[in-house]
């Protein structure tokens, strides 16, 4: 989910007749001045040098000329292939770096992809030589020959621009996912993206993307042929790399400068890929039966610390095998459905075939 730190919303204090004589319950004039000055300082800090809002380029015909001779020239991404045949391989890609222990939530998403997508291959693109821990054993034994490994190193720069703190790892990962899809094609998932039901209906398009709440490209679920025109153009967006902006090159610039100008390059999905920010539905609501209507859902697990209620977060700071069996919010049902080996049988959630079929 995109959170735009450059937009600061505030309420102004209106002079309603504050007199020199301070009355009980009223803010002294000096206090009003202090609030105004403090607000101005905060705005300058948030929007000053290095904090400018996004600046987009005008239409560039030379950019789109780079895909002029593509095999997809003239392809209709509104209806897909004429005979509804699949052109995107049934590969699922995950990216793992540094930590050899796979968390419970990430393992849930891997197992959901295996169970609900039934992929030909699941790729771990990683620099890790050996994974460890009980969740890794569960994944290894469950996936078997479907699991493949591809060694990859996070890049340190793009088109001569170095990835710099604080977003260097995220930006390097964003570039890596584009390159992975350009090499293999398939379905790229964030490690906390949960496949609810098969994404096969989207495999007949050149490329499918989800749209976020902020009207930008959601990178959490991507479905693409390796020669998709948008992939090449998306990578070109990094020639104007903005290191200080978390989502500019990944989601904002490609949406504004490519997709809005050439919407035929992709098949855009507004809601059913679940990239628009569903934390309240997942972690605050008591029930949410409609989650089964989605094809996938981005769990936004890293964002729980500030998007969940304080009470919930203090009570369930980490969601894992130690508490998921009793976790009463909708994500608990989703997790237990694919990975609940350690829960008493009565605490697992096994929906009836009738419910599942009625929502597909």
Question: How would you summarize this macromolecular structure in one to three sentences?
Answer:
The protein is globular and about 60 Å long.
Molecular structure report:
The protein has helices at residues 29-47, 61-65, 104-117, 134-143, 168-184, 229-236, 248-259, 279-283, 304-307, 310-315, 330-338, 353-359; strands spanning 91-96, 121-126, 147-151, 157-158, 161-162, 186-189, 193-195, 207-211, 217-224, 267-269, 296-298. With 360 residues, it is of the alpha/beta class. It folds into three domains: 1-53, no CATH class; 61-269, Spore Coat Polysaccharide Biosynthesis Protein SpsA, Chain A; 279-359, no CATH class. The longest helix is centred in the N-terminal third of the chain and has 19 residues, at 29-47. The chain starts with 28 loop residues before the first helix and ends with a helix. Pfam families: Gly_transf_sug (PF04488).
């Amino acid at each position: 989910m995109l959170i735009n730190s450059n937009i600061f919303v505030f309420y102004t204090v209106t002079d309603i007749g504050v007199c020199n004589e301070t009355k009980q319950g009223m803010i002294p004039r000096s206090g009003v001045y202090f609030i105004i000055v403090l607000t101005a300082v905060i705005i300058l800090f948030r929007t000053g040098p290095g904090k400018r809002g996004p600046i987009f380029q005008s239409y560039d015909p030379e950019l789109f000329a780079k895909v002029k001779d593509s095999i997809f020239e003239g392809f209709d991404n509104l209806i897909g292939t004429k005979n509804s045949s699949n052109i995107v391989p049934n590969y699922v890609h995950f990216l793992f770096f540094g930590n050899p222990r796979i968390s419970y939530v990430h393992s849930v998403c891997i197992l959901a992809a295996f169970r609900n997508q039934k992929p030909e291959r699941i790729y771990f693109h990683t620099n890790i030589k050996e994974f460890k821990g009980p969740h890794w054993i569960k994944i290894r034994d469950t996936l078997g020959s479907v699991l493949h490994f591809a060694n990859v190193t996070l890049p340190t720069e793009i088109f001569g621009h170095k990835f710099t703190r604080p977003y260097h790892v995220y930006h390097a990962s964003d570039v890596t996912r584009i390159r992975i899809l350009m090499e293999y094609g398939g379905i790229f998932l964030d490690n906390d993206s949960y496949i609810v039901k098969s994404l096969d209906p989207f495999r007949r398009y050149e490329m499918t993307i989800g749209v976020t709440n902020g009207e930008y490209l959601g990178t959490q679920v991507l479905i693409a042929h390796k020669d998709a025109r948008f992939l090449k153009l998306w990578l070109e967006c990094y020639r104007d790399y903005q290191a200080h902006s978390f989502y500019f090159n990944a989601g904002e610039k490609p949406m504004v400068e490519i997709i809005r100008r050439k919407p035929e390059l992709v098949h855009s999905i507004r809601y059913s890929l679940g990239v628009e920010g569903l934390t309240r539905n997942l972690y605050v609501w008591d029930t949410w039966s409609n989650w089964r209507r989605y094809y996938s859902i981005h769990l936004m697990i890293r964002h729980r610390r500030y998007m969940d209620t304080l009470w919930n977060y203090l009570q369930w700071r980490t969601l894992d095998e130690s508490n998921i069996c009793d976790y009463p919010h909708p994500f608990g049902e989703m997790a237990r459905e694919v990975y609940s080996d350690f829960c008493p049988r009565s605490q697992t959630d096994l929906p009836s075939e009738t419910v599942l079929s009625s929502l597909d």
